[in-house]
Amino acid sequence: MTTPLVTTEQQGPVLIIKLNSPETRNSLTLELREQLGQAIALAERERSVRSVFLSGTGPAFCSGGDFKMLQQASTPWPVHRRFRQYSRWLTPLSTLEKPVVVGVHGYAVGGGMGLALTGDVLIAGESTKLVAGFFRLGAVPDIGVMYQLPRLIGMARAKNFLFGGDTLDAQEALALGLVRKVVPDAQLHDAGLEEAQRLASGPAEVMGLAKLLMARSFEHSIEQMFTYEGLGQALAMSSGEFREGFDAAMNKRSPDFIAAAAQAAQNGQ
Questions:
Q1: What is the DSSP annotation of 101-137?
Q2: pTM for the full model?
Q3: 212 pLDDT band (50/70/90 cuts)?
Q4: Are 162 and 256 within one domain?
Q5: How far apart are CA 177 and CA 171, in angstroms?
Q6: Do 114 and 224 sit in the same domain of this protein?
């Protein structure tokens, strides 16, 4: 039986997704990308999944592009087809309307760094190295790096990092705000899962809605964003999560957002 390159395990409301090709340092082969897309589709369609924790096995989070594939498929049409396939895995991950926690350890190189940056919250192991390796190959940054990085740290810092061919260690990434916390590598799984569980126990569906709206904030005017806020708030305040959160605040108790969402799903909402 073939060992899966991406594994999934649901623990309560959290779907744990692991890149599982340690012999290639989880490089983004076609097969790995296809299996990652299947895992993301599972997270999207399963309502009992309220957050995702993505991490990697072996010595590195992700070494980026698959060199064997690049040797064989770097002419225009294969490259074009490969990038069109982003809609099967990268776009759904980036736009998933559920909180995504990424646990990074070891090297996240090029596209592997891009994959890490799709997360809403990053937890870094002490061994983490974020590497901008694109220009060393004579390639432009991809896997969403040119979209995500300027938004996360600003255009000037993004250019300095990419054009400098730099490497960020865990503490430098923390200082830039790219990661939420740094933990010993041995504690990364538990810390990432704890963060994913914390988000899952909150109003995860409303967080997903806010995530959808915030993604548009750099392309629209403030007036347009006010419109989106109003529409989003109308939807949020009609949710079981809002009713639960508001009632809990009024009655000075802890909200149970998971139960409220399950009840709403049972009622077809």
A1: EEEE-SEEETHHHHHHHTSSEEEEETT-EEE--TTTT
A2: 0.94
A3: very high
A4: no
A5: 10
A6: no
